[in-house]
Amino acid sequence: MNKLLACLLFCFPLLSSAQEDSTDVFDYSLFGDAQGVKRYCNQKVLNQTPQRIISIGMERLGAFEVPSLPLSAMLPAMQNFSATGMFALKAQVNIPVISTNKIIWQLGANYWGSGIAFENPGTHPLANKLSSHTLTSTGLTTTIFKPLNEKNFLIVQASADLNGIFHEPKEINSNAVTVSGSALYGWKLSEKNMIGVGLARTYRAGQIMHLPVVLWNKTFNDKWGMELLLPARGHLRYNFSTSSIVQLGFELEGNQFWTKLPGSTNGTLFIQRGELKPRIMWDKKLSGFIWFNAQAGLRYNWRFDGMDVYNGKALNQRYFTSALGNPLYVGFSLNFVSP
50, 152, 157, 314: least CB-packed within 10 angstroms? Predict the structure, then answer.
């Protein structure tokens, strides 16, 4: 027993010394060079408002004037109307299909339905159509964010929307479809600053346009930042905290809507609707990934024209143009956001 104890006491220092020596001379290079791993930028800047995966909301507009609606394509007479308001329902789903550090691919669907409440549409064909039906826009969209490295990225987006005033499902046809898209190349300058430039095909102003676009998301400090996708929208951001954000800015919305209208030149009509919304928004985290959004502002009429042909622009293709009044509006939505 004494010999066993003496042997253990003799060997213990040798074992301890061997452990220390093996640690001192361990070759970490066997695990490879960490600097050789390719890194990719992400699609956000610090403190940016969270991206909405599922959103449902409503808007309510105040009273406004609806002037210069034609009685008939064969008559030059116009009639003016008053609207007590407009109600809109909006819903959006944007689901990640692939989400890795090398690529993010999302598929989405959207719905925008709005109806004008006329004080007295009478027997006027277009006023009756607008007051008794919903201006509907619904469609599918796909977005790809492809980082090329730590500094550069690509964004490609495409959408197809079905837009119109439909009395019954069998009226739906290809003339009610609009196709939009954009492509941007960008630079992630830091975790607080990213810039992109590109081209877009859009109906946001109610009429088909091909124009340059600029993306610029920048965080100035812990409180202030901006989020721009010009000319579609732009906001100055103030972060009260990570769960409470206020934005001041604008958004340009719209599309081209098809409808049947007896008395028009071809029996059909394309309503080109575009509106600019200067607004203030408040986003508040309720619980987990559930956020609430409230907004208020002005609905400024950019365009409300009736055209006889798809993508019409010429004056001789115009059935009417109405300078809608510009009411105040409020909106609310409940959103499930990304981490």
Answer: 314
